[in-house]
Design a protein that fits this description.
CATH topology of the largest domain: Leucine-rich repeat, LRR (right-handed beta-alpha superhelix)
Number of strands: 11
Number of helices: 11
Helix content: 25-40%
Radius of gyration: 23 Å
Strand content: 5-15%
Structural class: alpha/beta
CATH architecture of the largest domain: Alpha-Beta Horseshoe
Order of helices and strands: HHEHEEHEHEHEHEHEHEHEHE
CATH class of the largest domain: Alpha Beta
Shape: elongated
Largest sheet: 11 strands, parallel
Distance between the termini: 62 Å
């Protein structure tokens, strides 16, 4: 079966996988070697340069030859596999960490995932999949109650999606990434007063939350946060946090923050002074580069935070 195949020199693999299709060997030699030589607890199948049909075919071949029931880590990042996926209808009950980022999965794929046998999943990277509000709703209401880490960056999620995430079954989340969506002020408000009080790490960069959104975050039930990312963009702020937002963040209930990133917003000297007088006794890193802070504001911040602040 392996005659003429790049795996021909791997006697132990020929013995373990006598039925592996030879036609795949030349196309994905390095990937196949990595997969077939895996310990059985981890599988990395990333950025394969082929079409979705080819990936599905190869995935089926791997399913037949490689036992997946003991997998604890699975990465299918960057394969553009679409909503049907490569490993659908597979027993992945022991899986703890999964990376499905950049796969064009959409809301339909989110639905299949949320109703699968993934009750032990604690970490899910679902970024760059265009799931929208509907996909966010599906994930929040599925069986993923044990998730502690969820990445939904760049998924076309709006205020309604943020609302369902905050009101769903994701009580155990400690880390949530929602950068490059468009949750806006209302989305920030619902996230701040929902079921996500266990969060310690939150990324809402480039979400148009503005001063009102910053106020909501600072006065919600997110007092366990230790890291908060509210970055804008170098050319477009895309969060529009100004002095009033900085003031609110400074005097809210975010005193446990260790990391606060406000890169490229619209904060001036007034906001800088408020931050320097804020209740940030635990802060070890404050990022304020690409704002509108002058010498006076920088002086106040340097006096309070020293090298912990970056301009």
């Amino acid at each position: 079966m392996f005659e003429g195949c790049p795996l021909i020199g791997k006697k132990e693999l020929r013995e373990r996988f006598p039925n592996f299709p030879v036609s795949y060997c030349g196309m994905w030699e390095n990937t196949i070697l990595k997969i077939l030589e895996s310990t059985g607890s981890e599988l990395h199948f990333e950025n394969i340069d082929t079409n979705p049909q080819g990936l599905i075919a190869l995935g089926k071949a791997i399913k037949v030859n490689v036992p997946l029931t003991n997998l604890t880590t699975l990465s299918l990042r960057g394969n553009m596999i679409g909503p049907n996926g490569v490993f659908s209808n597979v027993n992945l009950s022991k899986l703890a960490a999964m990376d499905l980022s950049s796969n064009k999965i959409g809301a339909e794929g989110a639905k299949a995932l949320s109703h699968g046998n993934l009750s032990n999943l604690t970490s899910l990277d679902f970024s760059l999949n265009n799931i929208g509000d509907e996909g966010a709703k599906i994930l929040s209401q599925g069986i993923l109650k044990n998730l502690t880490i969820l990445n939904l960056d760049n998924n076309n999620i709006g205020a309604q999606g943020a609302k369902v995430l905050s009101q769903g079954n994701l009580f155990s989340l400690t880390s949530l990434a929602l950068s490059d969506n468009d949750i806006g002020v209302e989305g920030a408000k619902t996230l701040s007063h929902g079921n996500l009080s266990n969060l310690t790490w939150l990324n809402l960069s480039r979400n148009n939350i503005g001063d009102e959104g910053a106020k909501a975050l600072s006065h919600g039930n997110l007092s366990n946060l230790t890291s908060l990312y509210l970055r804008g963009s170098l050319n477009f702020s895309l969060n529009h946090i100004r002095d009033e937002g900085a003031k609110a963040l400074s005097h809210g209930n975010l005193s446990n923050l260790i990391m606060l990133d406000l890169y490229s917003n619209n904060i001036g000297d007034e906001g800088a002074k408020a931050l320097s007088n804020g209740n940030f006794s635990s802060l070890t890193s404050l990022v304020l580069s690409e704002n509108d802070i002058g010498d006076e504001g920088k002086k106040a911040l340097k006096k309070k935070f020293g090298d912990k602040v970056k301009f």
